[in-house]
């Protein structure tokens, strides 16, 4: 996949440059001290979630063959060993829900993850049918978080989600989108509706969510999941062949992935960020962003300025 390939190129460039800590981009302390990932509370309940989760768009849309699924099996097993928890899926993501359900069940880890999926259709009964299908595919009697995907028929689905939450079929309710243009509508819903989660795009270069959406979610007590943290690989392409700045070590940043992710999770409105990967080394690297020091406001400003200057 294009964005994974670009990340590998960026990491190879770091190694070739001999950039100190960047020479070992996967040398996270998680190897030696698992389950030390920073956690944040879900405001509506106080339940804690690790700040780095796993997205499944593209990577988990594979067939039933053992060779296709083996890397994903390894990713899920390692994620659980390191203390990762939230896995985000959707009916839109092809076979992702089924693959996640099959592999986590085979690994006897199905109930140990926090499953977040979505309803992505129009009409009440269509939504009910689709969500029941998600339960079957993910091999669950209850989904941790059900989200209205890209706000499609959101008013209809939120009514159903509230009914399902009362009935105990889901634990949390959320809404999602992936574009800056959607942030105003997301914010309006955050302020006017009783929801537990909002999911949106946010990255070190795409900071529209900082204008007001993230603050609104924090003020209203709504948990925030971040998608598109690497801008579909564009950030890795931007830093290809470049060394990490020396001051990145002040924030325990050991790779470009951690640079990008730590910027996001250093915003305390963010509950969890969900980079997608089918590569266990990338997973270890990503989860490592949840360890160690986070940049303060001065550090965040320095990171923005550095990226803007490349």
From TrEMBL:
SUPFAM superfamilies: NAD(P)-linked oxidoreductase. Keywords: Signal. InterPro entries: AKR2_Oxidoreductase, NAD(P)_OxRdtase_dom_sf, NADP_OxRdtase_dom, TAT_signal, TAT_signal_bac_arc. CDD domains: AKR_PA4992-like. Residues 52-297 form the NADP-dependent oxidoreductase domain. Pfam families: Aldo_ket_red (PF00248). Residues 1-30 form the signal peptide. Gene3D superfamilies: NADP-dependent oxidoreductase domain. It comes from the Bacteria. This is Secreted protein. The lineage of its organism: Bacteria, Pseudomonadati, Bacteroidota, Cytophagia, Cytophagales.
């Amino acid at each position: 996949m294009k964005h994974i390939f670009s990340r590998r190129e960026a990491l190879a460039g770091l190694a070739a440059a001999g950039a100190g800590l960047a020479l070992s981009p996967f040398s996270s302390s998680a190897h030696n001290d698992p389950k030390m990932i920073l956690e944040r509370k879900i405001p509506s309940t106080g339940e804690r979630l690790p700040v780095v989760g796993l997205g499944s768009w593209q990577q988990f849309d594979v067939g039933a063959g053992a060779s296709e699924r083996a890397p994903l099996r390894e990713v899920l097993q390692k994620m659980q060993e390191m203390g990762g928890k939230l896995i985000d899926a959707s009916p839109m993501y092809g076979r992702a829900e089924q693959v996640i359900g099959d592999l986590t069940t085979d690994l006897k880890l199905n109930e140990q993850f926090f499953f977040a999926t979505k309803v992505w259709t129009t009409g009440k009964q269509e939504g009910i049918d689709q969500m029941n299908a998600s339960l079957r595919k993910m091999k669950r009697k209850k989904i941790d978080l059900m989200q209205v995907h890209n706000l499609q028929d959101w008013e209809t689905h939120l009514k159903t989600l509230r009914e399902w939450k009362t009935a105990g079929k889901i634990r949390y309710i959320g809404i999602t989108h992936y574009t800056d243009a959607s942030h105003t509508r997301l914010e309006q819903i955050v302020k006017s509706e009783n929801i537990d989660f909002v999911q949106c795009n946010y990255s070190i270069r795409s900071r529209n969510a900082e204008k007001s959406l993230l603050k609104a979610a924090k003020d209203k007590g709504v948990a925030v999941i971040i998608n598109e943290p690497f801008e579909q690989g564009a950030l890795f392409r931007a830093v290809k062949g470049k060394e990490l700045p020396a001051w990145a070590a002040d924030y325990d940043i050991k790779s470009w992935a951690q640079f990008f992710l730590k910027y996001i999770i250093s915003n305390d409105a963010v509950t969890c960020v969900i980079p997608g990967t089918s590569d266990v080394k990338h997973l270890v690297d990503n989860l490592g962003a949840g360890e160690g020091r986070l940049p303060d406001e001065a550090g965040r400003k320095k990171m923005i300025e550095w990226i803007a200057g490349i």
